Amino acid sequence: MNAGEFVDYQQGLDWIHSLLRFGQRPGLERMNWILEKLGHPERRVPFIHVAGTNGKGSTCAFLCRMLMEAGYKVGMFTSPYLADFCERIRCNGQMIPEADLLRLINEVKPLVEQCEKETEYGSPTEFEVVTLIAILYFAKVSRPAVVIWETGLGGRLDATNVVIPLVSVITNIGKDHIQVLGERLEDIAREKAGIIKPGVPVVTGEQRPELVAVLQEKAAQTRSTVYRIGEHFSVKQLEEQLGEQWMEYNSIHRRYPARYRLTMNGRHQTENAAVALMTIDLLKNFYSYLLEDEEIERGLQQTRWPGRLEIISPRPFVILDGAHNEEGMAALAGSLARLAPEDGRLHVLFSGLADKPLAGMAEKLLPLRGRIRSLHVATFDFPRAADAATLQEAFRQAGWEEEKIHPVPDWRAFLHAWVRENQTARADDWLVVCGSLYFIAQVRAYFPTTVEEAGE
């Protein structure tokens, strides 16, 4: 063992977290410098690179499950995590073993320190180091047939953008991380389009012409083909009830449309599934991946993605949703309007990050004003979390009545009391816990469930 190596997993994890002090530093110089020292392991792995504002995690989950059902060994890199750090790096659904993670931490640590001391680039950030570890794990340890590779933030300058993928996927574009990506949707689209590589096909779920134009402009520069929802492939929600929905999908690579059953709710999930299906169509037609119709059906049906319209308690009825921006809250409001009993009573527990458009998010729930009986806002243990007073003011600015908004000093105590006092509540009394995925992760840990997968 070399001096300075960690012998304990927790020590290694603490070192990774200590790099948070370097914050977010967009740019690929540090990644490329270390990858050069490592002999460019990323060139030995086939990737599917997934960017977008919402739906990245669900799309990754659909892709992973379909490919696994077809017998492929599939790696997946997502962020953040809900309960265990190792969730971020998976192979065939299994988290990276702590022993492998520790060994890879010790492999990259000297290079991280060398980069900080000997180059003009400074120290790699926490996310960059986790990304490097994921590349090493997939290239040298687990060796999957394909890796589903989710961006962290944006695309062009994101640490994941050091790979040349088989397919680039951009789910959609919305206003998120505007302090880094820009305030205009066109600017954000340009950052997402940064993952488009020369000659690599692009699949997108974005439909607004002015944003698609930005993607096509970049694709024209790289001689890549963009496959658009609504033009090259299509999806239609056929029916939906709590716990399942049916959709119809078709694409230019298929003779006939096909019906599929999903066990995740929300119309937006049919679009995420369609984006994943189009990506599978390209893998089959351009790269000779073999997936039978039955394997695709099973994969879609078996896909789960915790924290998205997830029923965490049947009685009292508690549902979780990581609606962490305006688009996410709008999707949540639409799903609740369709799924909740018409004479049901909705109660909301919300928490969000201070750097999000909180008033805009609160406004997206206004179509449910007549069905929401109470709104509870709470802070949670996270550096960027908004305090309860800020959240209360955001709902007030959005037009919610003062008497409906209830600041909660301790969300755990609130949930404990809610569960205890509502054991015999009617089935149409719903508690909807929503907001930041970091908050949802903590709430989810409060309930006795098993985490399968995670990601924002």
Helix content: 25-40%
Strand content: 15-25%
The chain-level structural class is alpha/beta
What global shape is seen? Answer: globular
Number of domains: 2
CATH topology of the largest domain: UDP-N-acetylmuramoyl-L-alanine:D-glutamate ligase
Low-confidence stretches: 450-456
How many extended strands?
17
Q: Considering the protein shown, what is the CATH homologous superfamily of the largest domain?
A: Mur-like, catalytic domain
CATH architecture of the largest domain: 3-Layer(aba) Sandwich
CATH class of the largest domain: Alpha Beta
Query: How is the main sheet built?
Result: 8 strands, mixed
Strands ordered across the widest β-sheet: 4-3-2-5-1-6-7-8
Mean pLDDT over the residues:
92
- Radius of gyration (CA) equals 22 Å
**Could you tell me how far the N terminus lies from the C terminus, measured between alpha carbons in angstroms?**
37 Å
Overview of the structural elements:
The chain has 456 residues and is an alpha/beta fold. The protein folds into 2 domains: 9-302, 3-Layer(aba) Sandwich (UDP-N-acetylmuramoyl-L-alanine:D-glutamate ligase), CATH 3.40.1190; 310-446, Protein-Tyrosine Phosphatase, Chain A, CATH 3.90.190.20. The protein contains 15 helices and 17 strands. It has helices spanning 9-18, 29-37, 56-69, 98-118, 126-142, 178-181, 185-192, 209-222, 267-287, 293-302, 326-339, 358-363, 388-397, 411-421, 437-446; strands at residues 47-51, 74-77, 89-91, 94-95, 146-150, 167-170, 202-204, 226-228, 233-241, 244-251, 258-262, 310-314, 317-321, 345-351, 372-378, 405-408, 429-435. The strands form 3 sheets. The protein has an 8-stranded mixed β-sheet, sandwiched between helices. Strands 12-13-17-14-15-16 form a 6-stranded mixed β-sheet, sandwiched between helices. Helix 2 (29-37) crosses helix 4 and helix 3 crosses helix 10. The chain starts with 8 loop residues before the first helix and ends in a 10-residue tail after the last helix.
